[in-house]
Amino acid sequence: MIQTDHIADPVIHLPSLRSLEIASPEYGHICLIERLALPNLVSLSVGAIHRPQDVYFPVCGLGDVGGTVLLKALARPSPVTGRSVFSKLREINLTRIGCDDEAAIAYMFTELTELLSLSLDDELAIMDWEDVLIKQWESIAHSNKEPLLPKLETFKTTRLSSESARELIQARKATGKPFKKASMGRTSVFTKEDEQWIRDHVDIFEHHDGLLGKVVLKTEI
Fold it and tell me: Where are the domains of the chain?
C-alpha cells in the first residue's frame, strides 16, 4: 500500500522509462505520481477513472481518484525536468476517464506538443473531449497560429457520431495539419456516405472492435 503522508519524499527519477500504464489508481497514488520525473516517457495509458472528482476516505488514506485530479497531477512540471509528464509523449491512450473540467482537458492538450497518436475511449466520460479540440482548431482555421496537438497524425476513438467525426476531421484539416489516420469504434454509426467522406479526407480509415480491439476494416489511399 502506498502511503499518503510523505509529501516531502525525494523525487523518483526514471530516465530510462519510456512507457507507463496507470489503471484504476487509488487516491494515494497521486502522491507517487507527483514525485515521478519521467524525462523520456513517450507512451502513456490511463484508464478506469469513472468519477470527475475524488472520493477520499481520510481514516485509511485511500479512495478513488477523480479523472480531473489525476490529469492535473500529470500536467504539473517535474521539479527535476521542469516539464510535465505530457511534454514528450508521442502516444497517449485515455480510457473511461471521468473529467468535468474543460480547462484541465485544454491544458493537457496544450502540454502534448509532441503527440503523434491520440486514443480516446469516452464511453463513460463526463464531457466530450473532442469538443475542446474542435473549438480551438476552428478558432484558428486558415491562419498561421499553432493548433492544439500540432504534430498529431492519428486519432482513435470508440464512440463518436458521424457528425462529430466529420466536424473533428474538417476542423483539423482547416488548421493546415490534417489527420493521416482515423480509427472509429464499431459502436459509432456511419452511413456509407459518411465512411466515403472520411476516406476522402484521411490517408487511412479503419473500424475496430474497441479501443484495444482488433481492426475489422481498413482502407488506405
Answer: 1-93, 128-221
